[in-house]
Each structure stands twice: as structure tokens, then as C-alpha cells.
Amino acid sequence: MQIPRASQVVRARSRHYLVSEVVHGPHAEDATLVRMSCLDDDAAGDSLELLWEKEPATEILEEEEVRLGLGLDSPQAFGAWLHALQWSCVTSTEKELFQSPFRAGIAIKPYQLEPLRK
Predict the structure, then answer these.
(1) Among 112, 1, 115, which residue's Cα sits nearest to residue 55?
(2) Phi and psi at residue 43, in whole multiples of 5°?
(3) Residue 18 has what pLDDT?
(4) d(CA 12, CA 58)
């Protein structure tokens, strides 16, 4: 079984990860600890540690399979992403803040805002 190296992209647990560190055990029969960070949009930056030889369905992606760095987004697309990220950060701990009504799929009507405020 091939062991990944730091800076390689791998697929594990149905996600793509960037390997940050590989720790080999003191004995040849020991499993290899692999530390990595998620590259997928919905979990970007989440860290994962696993024993490579014990983990099912892992694979090291070849450079041709890795499609990173396809260029920069337009300012409008980046702005839309940034606004969506800011809206998703609103939590219920701040009772004076409302989440975007557009995200909830409702039309803004005065009779809807009063229950939302309460």
C-alpha cells in the first residue's frame, strides 16, 4: 500500500484532503498516522487524523486528478460568496440579528417581520 507524502491531495471518507504531516510508527508493522486538512467547500480547513493502512477506501490523487487553482473568481462572484458567508455566520446567540429572509425563502411582508422579531 502506498503512503501519501506531505502536500499531496488524497481522497478519504468521501472528501478531498491536503496532507500536512505523515508520522511513521517506530516499527515497520505499525500503521502510519496521516494529518490532513479538508479541501471541500462545505468543510474547508477541517482537520482529520487517521491511520492510513487501517482506513478503508482511501486513495492518493494524481496531479492530473487535482483541479485546484483554476483562476480567480470575478469580483461579483467573490462578493456574492462573501455575503453568503457573512449571512451564514449569524447565530441565535445574538437575538437582535435576523438571518437573511431571502435565505429562508420567504417574501418580506410586514406581518411576517413581527413574529420574526419576537
Answers:
(1) 1
(2) -145, 30
(3) 92
(4) 5
Side chain identity, residue 89: C
Question: Please, where are the H alpha helices in the chain?
Answer: 75-88, 101-104, 110-117
The answer to whether 60 and 2 have CB atoms below 8 angstroms apart is yes
C-alpha cell at 94: 445574538
Length of the chain in residues, anyone? 118
How far apart, in whole angstroms, are the C-alpha atoms of residue 94 and residue 73?
32
Global pTM value = 0.56
CB 49 within 8 A of CB 33: yes
- Which cell numbers hold the place of 58? 482511501
Q: What letter represents residue 95's amino acid?
A: K
State pLDDT tens for residues 69-103.
Answer: 556 678 888 888 887 776 666 554 455 655 555 55
